[in-house]
Amino acid sequence: MLTIDGSYGEGGGQILRTSLALATLLKTPVKITKIRANRPKPGLANQHLACIKALQTIANARVKGVKLGSTEIEFYPGKIRGGSFKIDIGTAGSISLVLQALSLPCGFADEEIKLTIKGGTDVAWSPPIDYVKNVTYVILKKMGFEASLDLIKRGYYPKGNGLVNVEFFPTKKLRGINIERGELIEIKGIAHSLNLPCHIVEREAKAAKEILPCEVKLECKKNFSTGTGIVLWANFGKTVLGSSSLGERGKPAEKVGKEAALDLKKEIESQVSLDIHMADQIIPFLAIAKGNSSFTVRKITKHLETNIYIVEKIVGNRFEIEKKDKLYVVKCRGSGFSI
303 an active-site residue? Predict the structure, then answer.
């Protein structure tokens, strides 16, 4: 059994999610220790329990040590099966982070998988659901990964109660990809809110437009949860770059829009092919793809280093990072996994 040190690198939930995704795909039993050791509250939270329980069902997995607060688990995956599954995180835990554990193995089932996930769609320290739909899945499609995502209703911290439908279409293998930029086509986005005055999303969008020439959809609704935020993405000929910002009590709407726009402006002006968030998310997919892959990024984050550590340990291939001018070039040769 392979043992993964959960305290490595960023020492959070990402080690757990990526380890579970790859272990399920490759049918490799893993023991994960010191789970979330570098967090104020170590051990499994509701979001992580939802990941494990979903994979238990989808991949007929056996587990040991799985309970709230546990810092060590054993995971024995079986065969991934198609079908429809409902996942309730039970809190405002991030749906997009749960998808980081589920997307890769679900894409390799022998039949379609349909997930209905209840939880947080726009919460701190995780990609917003609009980023997953308009950046993550768009880029992965270029490798042969097929998924569709429908947002039914939003859920913010602390109430959650957001709802998302995701459908995964079977693939046999992924293609390696050398990601380039191409010409900038358009910058789009969405400013969203629940149970707040509509002038808030209008001000967020206006602030973003003062920095970038973007087309921002306004979404102002009422529902169970209360919150606001903005997501922006720049569509290039060969890639997509994204950014986001969440509102919070006492934070002006203008600051929310400005933060997202300045972050995206930084990515655009740096001439990268992936933003700093997509750079770590794509690593497990590149690791198992067939052929060579590469991309450029402006910063090597702890999340990126952590994901590289995990895939090198589980998959066995090597990533190279080379500094070129002000950018970093990340390269690898995928294992060519197929079913």
Answer: yes
Q: What is the pLDDT of residue 90?
A: 87
Residue ranges per structural domain of the chain: 2-178+274-333, 184-269
**Distance between CA atoms of residues 258 and 189, nearest Å:** 13
Residue pair 5/310 in contact (Cβ under 8 Å)? The answer is no
Whether pTM exceeds 0.90: yes
pLDDT (tens digit, 9 = 90+) per residue, 109-130? 999 999 999 999 999 999 999 9
pLDDT tens for 190-213 read: 999 999 999 999 999 999 999 999
Domain 2-178+274-333 has CATH 3.65.10.20: yes
Which residue of the set 48, 192, 277, 303 is catalytic?
A: 303
